Amino acid sequence: MKDEMTREERVANLKGMGCSRKRVEDARFTQGKGNYVDDVKLPGMLHGDFVRSPYAHARIKSINIDAAMALPGVTAVLTAKDLEPLGLHWMPTLAGDKQMVLADGKVLFQGQEVAFVVASDRYVAADAVELVEVDYEELEVVVDPFEALKSDVVLREDMVAEDGSVPNGAHGPRNHPNHIFTWEAGEKEATEQVIGDAEVVATEEMYYHRTHPCPLETCGSVASMDKVNGKLTLWGTFQAPHVVRTVASLLSGIEEHNIRVISPDIGGGFGNKVGVYPGYVCSIVASIVTGVPVKWVEDRMENLMSTAFARDYWMKGQISATKEGKITGLHCHVTADHGAFDACADPTKFPAGFMNICTGSYDIPVAYLGVDGVYTNKAPGGVSYRCSFRVTEAVYFIERMIEVLAIKLNMDPAELRSINFIKKEQFPYQAALGWEYDSGDYQTAWDKALEAVDYKGLRAEQAQRVEDFKAGKTRKVMGIGLSFFTEIVGAGPVKNCDILGMGMFDSCEIRIHPTGSAVARLGTISQGQGHATTFAQILATEIGLSAESITIEEGDTDTAPYGLGTYGSRSTPVAGAAAAMAGRKIRAKAQMIAAYLLEVHDNDVEFDVDRFVVKGSPEQFKTMKEVAYAAYNQAIPGLEPGLEAVSYYDPPNMTYPFGAYICVMDIDVDTGVPEIRRFYALDDCGTRINPMVIEGQIHGGLTEALAVALGQEIAYDDLGNVKTGTLMDFFLPTAWEVPNYETDYTVTPSPHHPIGAKGVGESPHVGGVPCFSNAVQDAFRPFGNTHTNMPHDHWRIWQTANDLGMHD
Ligand code: MCN
Ligand code: CUM
């Protein structure tokens, strides 16, 4: 067969790995053809809405639903009493705790679900919500986790024995009714010894405030129980649809094959859609009760007030070093505010997520981490928001501690980092708190970053600015924010990572059609990350068919192979690996078919881009397309017809992407307004599948980092009222606040991943928050600042300047 294309053209034609292929999803999304949960409209469908608690802590004396039921169009009002006979008034959380589905006797946070109204449309439901009469008796509110551990006010009466003693929780002993767990890693005594004997010790306390992922699309579900065939179909905003199916089966007793869970298009997840919410359960129960489909979609305030928040970590650190700046030990204690229920979305064995990556990118010989989880009268959740399971907190902690140590040592913070980096030759590197980092080349990335921004020049400019400020020539100070982060993404392996007992592998199934196109299904689910584009690229390179000829499907449990879903930037490290492995199975069979067709031995053909070529005879070949046709239409001795493969991939380790970020900021000390002059972000996520998609991920993650560092917050008052429950108060950056980002990269492949790829989706957030925060802190360093807490909104920045006497 004569070939018209050059090899280069054939490679380009594949649109495989490394190509900035345009996102195939966008044609749909930009033309209003997305299909989100709220687009699911079924005949006879009813609508649910919640009665929510106005109080943060109160006893429920009575609930009267008569007036609501009397409103025309109202079908049902469910309360905990109705769910109790089904055993569904409480549900398990992902963190081993349990949570009320509807308030059972008391409410524990403002916005808690009290009753579920089902009506003919959303507006009638909302009107009926107003007619439900709940009689509350207010109780003392506890919003401060440190107070909670001293208080006589018991929040979770279900977590205290009748004799008043405090039984163990899911993660071991508890020392107070409001205490959830103590979790420790590393060597406490050895660390304390090293710090006690050290030449230099820096100590700091910092609060990583409570915030919220706030995806554009709020959470929702549509449940449809077909009583004739016994099948339950559930559409919802699920980042892990298979897990939802299994949990729904275990809770409801409906056999798993009779449950179909579908995540349609998702309008941003950012971790907010990992957890299981009362609305999902109530829509299912309501559909079972009424016999028709029931939709529940929350509004913006409900999303901000009651679904998975992020952070709320009070961190206390000590870091020790020699006079020359070599770090000798790190000690960290965290008081973790989990709200009313421990509903953190972590792998089961990690109640503080992967916070124990808090030694960061540095070779720290000995370290200790202790975390105490605490109940307060706030919304449950935690972890979520581009976090890789508390890696945001860990990196913020270490990158602040480095800055504080640099102040103590009177040393340049860039140099202090260089002195302490884990060296290239040390990988795989065994960290003091347990992780084995797979690969890295930190110094190269750091040098590249410092050079790109002319770091020395910036420091000289900053010194001049300080002089000018002191001489009264300017009212603007200049900050240089640095951060160097190491991420940990791609949970499993199954042996140490599970969710509710379900091991964290992932999967891909490919079916090649006779004419040489394909459909591949995975256990993950895109929420905007572009999986339909990028997974096809991995497969294109592996199997030699153009990405344009490969359809990617995710999110339907009736068709997709079992997987653990998308969060913790695990899709590329785990499902991406499964895709490559499934592709290789296809190729192995295809090679046998090609050899048969070419009448040579299997070992005498080799794969080249899109074809199998007879070794040493390049004019003799069979393309993958030809092989696909033969697989279905030609009897091949010893081989089954067809060409399909499935891979379930249990990763041997996680992947450890890293990056170097630098932010240059000018701050007007009289208005407290920061101006971001420059933001440089170098990311290393190993082998890059789609550089354009990576860049998009980085822009998005950095913008969310800007939000968190510079203003975004879920704030409570002393009575447990949410002060920032609307987008008037909760800061979402717009094009106005967002700077031009400069992106850059190095490539250090993961040695254990089939294509060497590491995750990237969460990196920019993990590295970005400390970078923005460090820029603010650095601007005030010459004036005596050591640390101030985020969010650095205009008011707080002004206050910092004021406290430092800069307004005098
Ligand atoms: N990618 C790549 N090359 C790599 C690594 C990744 O081209 N070496 C591409 C992937 O093919 C994929 C994207 O980058 O299209 C992100 O991949 P990955 O880092 O594996 O992350 P996940 O797909 O698992 O996405 C999860 C991650 C998380 S946990 C949060 S939170 C977050 C994030 O993605 N939520 C997002 N980015 C988001 N982006 C959008 N638009 N919406 C969200 O809800
Ligand atoms: Cu932690 S937010 Mo993401 O893992 O879905």
Automatic annotation (TrEMBL):
Keyword Oxidoreductase: yes
Required co-factors: Cu(+); Mo-molybdopterin cytosine dinucleotide
InterPro entries named in the record: Ald_Oxase/Xan_DH_a/b, Ald_Oxase/Xan_DH_a/b_sf, Ald_Oxase/xanthine_DH-like, AldOxase/xan_DH_MoCoBD1, AldOxase/xan_DH_MoCoBD2, AldOxase/xan_DH_Mopterin-bd_sf, CO_Mo_DH_lsu
Enzyme Commission code(s) on record: 1.2.5.3
Gene Ontology MF terms in the entry: anaerobic carbon-monoxide dehydrogenase activity; carbon-monoxide oxygenase activity; copper ion binding; iron ion binding; molybdenum ion binding
Annotated function: Catalyzes the oxidation of carbon monoxide to carbon dioxide.
The protein's name in its UniProt record: Carbon monoxide dehydrogenase large chain
Species annotation: Sulfitobacter donghicola DSW-25 = KCTC 12864 = JCM 14565
